[in-house]
Amino acid sequence: MSVFQFFKRLFRKRWRRWRRAIWSCSIVLIVCALLWSVQNIKEQTKKLLTAASDETPLALETMHYLQIEDHKQKERMQDQRAFMQKLNASRGKKHVHVRITYVCGVEEQDLGKLTADGIYELMNKNPLWQGRLDKKGEVWLEQNVVDLSPTCKRQAYISMDANGNLTLFDGPPEEEKVMKTFFQLDVGSMESSLPEDVLKQLEEGIRVQDMDEFNSVLSTFSDYARDMAENVMKPTP
After folding, report:
1. Which parts of the sequence belong to the Bypass of forespore C C-terminal domain (predicted)?
2. Which domain holds residue 196?
3. Contact (CB, 8 A) for 102 and 148
4. Do 97 and 140 meet the contact criterion of CB atoms below 8 Å apart?
5. Which residues contact 63 (CB under 8 A, 6 or more apart)?
6. What is the pLDDT of residues 188-204, one digit of tens each?
7. Helix, strand or coil for residue 36?
8. What angle do CA 140, 146, 148 make, to 5 degrees?
9. 2 in a structural domain
């Protein structure tokens, strides 16, 4: 091997290491920038709540929620760093999956095998993706989205199942493809309070195509949620 070829090969190895380090740093910087912007907004919100609310219970509850979210974001950042460290230490290609979890529905995609550089490139383009390695050593790039999945938007219905539970169905309720069960309804209270056409619509299935409709239906029928405490058997004296 000539001296030129030796240095050329050495340069290629070092360039691969540098490129991986650049991808890692880019992802960390992007995530940090996102966290900083969210944190800045939260700090401003906290100041407004403290100044305008005079420590009302609602303001205190909101601030407590923001503190919980801060803690969750720090945990996500730590998990992301741990994932990148493991990925940097690994060799060869990794099988990669993408999983997007919606309020209603989950979508997964198999991307096949990619190098660490290819994975970093994907994460750089999608900074909200959270990476993890499963027990098989396969990579999962995941994200939670506060929206209905495209499938749910096309064919989701909210109705009542045979046991009186408010339920989300994939398609018309008669097909019995349950996606999610919310809570048990007080049917007697509904029958005495709600118009007959509303009850009929619920029985046939209420079509939900976006988050506004989804939240509206849940909010309407949550007033008739049966108290779970009623179903708890009291101990015999």
Report:
1. 147-222
2. 152-228
3. yes
4. yes
5. 46, 49, 50
6. 889 888 888 888 999 99
7. helix
8. 95
9. no
